Amino acid sequence: MIVLVAVLSAAPAVSAQLPPPDHDPFYAAPTDVGAYPNGAVLDSRPIALFGLPLPVRAWQVKYRTTDSSDRPAAYVATVMVPMLPWFGPGARPLLSYQVPEDSLGTRCAPSYALRGGWDPGAVNTLIDTPFMAEALRRGWALVVSDYEGPQSRFLDGVNSGRGVLDGIRAARDFPSAGLGPESPIGAWGYSGGAFATLWAAQMQPEYAPDIRFAGITSGGVPADWPAIARRADGTVQAGLAVLILFAIARNDPGAGVLELLNERGQAALIEVGAACGSDLVPMYVGARVDDFATVPSLLSHHSFRAAIGVQELGGTAPAVPMYLYHSITDDVIPVAGFTELLGRYCAQGATVTSVHSMLPTHNPAAIGEAPGAMNFLADRFAGLPVAPGCHSR
User: For the packed helices 225-232 and 335-347, what is the interaxial angle rounded to 10 degrees?
Assistant: First the structure.
């Protein structure tokens, strides 16, 4: 928490000197990006985390990936390594930590915030700072990828999963980080970060068989996206429903959702086309999705449900031990979707330790259940076995 306070107080002074990603040449893809293999390091630069003199070596690493349209692309990840030597058994672990980007614009990317770029869109990265700080305190290396990519494709599972996996490859093979093939690898994310984490875990056997996960942890897991949007619609969280609608409409214009937006919806999509979720929540308090639609009950419309259905988790069970947790009173993501996802994973033979948390609502559960998630990862990094099958705590 001391680290977070320092970041919040220092970041505004740093930001004036940092261009956002859209205006920073470092983020640009090289013209020959397609000539490199997935995960290849294209460029790097050392950074001071949040512009502060912290005892952590850190770099921005630009790497090759393939987006969900199968086009070569350049993404950016932040790689962090504690300055203290690793005294644990085996090689230093690498944790891929997924901040919930939840954005339609790159100014919300975690790499910008971690370098010291101050913007209201940095709030999700700042909120997650204590979790990253604890991982570093344990001696783990971290990679935090901008997994939405330069097009900020929120709610694109394939895009996010590939961005995470290739970010891990880049960090593992980045010489300055001192990692390598013997480093045990884990992944962790909460809420929107859980979406990217679990998509990466599902895709790993086919897309990145060279990555051997020791364990995966995720909480506040987004499952049943229409239910999430309905929960938020017309409430103080209505901006989340608007974010979901606009992301689906923008990401796949041919799916028919864009055509269901009325004039107000079309204008709003243009107006907030680079917004973060944290921008939209105060902007659309009490709004209803149908205010932006030409049809009633848009969230139940077949075009919307078909377009968002392909983004649901659970199509394939990850082949790695998982620790998944969710508040039974989550006020943002209904717990029923989480329970159903567990059932799908377990029916496919997954190894899952699950927690239906008694801690109230979304954000308190993120804090209170974090020690269990980290200890699960620590045990996997240490090579301790976990009983196969599904178990609840």
Answer: 170
